[in-house]
């Protein structure tokens, strides 16, 4: 299986955080933690989750 990559700025945050993971599900899990810590959001909204999913691409 090919890893996938995500960059936080690709969904509108002024943020350099990026990660590589084995799956889109792992990206979403880590992004939930990231938005809590770095962006003071309680969780991913449905809209933001959809934008994150759309922004995940092969590494």
Structure, explained:
This protein has 59 residues and is of the alpha+beta class. The protein has one domain. It contains two helices and three strands, in the order ββααβ. The mean pLDDT is 96.
Write the layout of secondary structure elements.
Layout: E1 4-7, E2 18-21, H1 24-39, H2 46-55, E3 57-58
Antiparallel strand pairs: 1-2, 1-3
Distance between the first and last residues' Cα: 11 Å
Shape: globular
Number of helices: 2
What is the radius of gyration computed over CA atoms, rounded to a whole number of angstroms? Answer: 10 Å
Range of strand content = 15-25%
Q: How much helical structure, as a percent, in the residues?
A: 40-55%
- Parts with pLDDT < 50 across at least 5 consecutive residues: none
Counted beta strands: 3
Order of helices and strands: EEHHE
Strand order, sheet with most strands = 2-1-3
Keywords, separated by commas or semicolons:
59 residues, alpha+beta, three-stranded antiparallel sheet, 3 strands, 44% helix, globular
In short:
The protein has 59 residues and is of the alpha+beta class. It has helices at 24-39, 46-55; strands at residues 4-7, 18-21, 57-58.
């Amino acid at each position: 299986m090919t890893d996938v990559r995500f960059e936080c700025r690709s969904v509108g945050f002024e943020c350099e955080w990026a990660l590589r993971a084995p799956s889109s599900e792992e990206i979403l899990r880590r992004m939930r933690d990231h938005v809590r810590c770095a962006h003071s959001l309680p969780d991913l909204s449905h809209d933001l989750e959809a934008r994150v999913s759309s922004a995940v691409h092969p590494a």
